[in-house]
Amino acid sequence: MNDAPEGDPLPQEPRNVFDSSYDAAEFKDDLTSGQLRWFFSILALIGLGLLIYCLVNPSATVIYFPISVKGRVAVWLIAFVFILWLTLAIKNWTSWFRQKSRS
After folding, report:
1. What is the residue-averaged pLDDT of the chain?
2. What is the pLDDT of residues 12-51, one digit of tens each?
């Protein structure tokens, strides 16, 4: 699925997501191929900071977008999103390290 030359671990041009041949398998490949490792790592760090802040005072935690969520439910929601970002960051870093070791 990677159209890059043998020595280059990442493709040179991003795929056009509006192309009719772009499917769910390519979307999964884009999310986990290692190209977004820094993006997901930064989001995981921001999520960790927000989670720690909310754990200090969970009764004052309020989320207004897209729905109004307060208290412990908001903390659980932030924890879930943090775990999602962390999982994607780990998957991207392991994929990137595998690609680097092959080249």
Report:
1. 84
2. 566 666 777 777 777 788 888 888 899 999 999 999 999 9
Query: Is 9 buried (19+), middle (13-18) or exposed (0-12) by CB count in 10 A?
Result: buried
In this prediction, residue 58 carries a pLDDT of 82
HEC states along the chain?
CCCCCCCCCCCCCCCCCCCCCCCHHHHHHHHHCCCCHHHHHHHHHHHHHHHHHHHHCHHHCEECCCCCEECHHHHHHHHHHHHHHHHHHHHHHHHHHHHHHHC
Tokens of 14: 């991003």
pTM, 2 dp = 0.73
The tens digit of pLDDT for each residue in 66-90 reads 889 998 899 999 999 999 999 999 9
Cα–Cα dist 14/36, whole Å: 12
Provide the β-strand partners of residue 62. Answer: 70
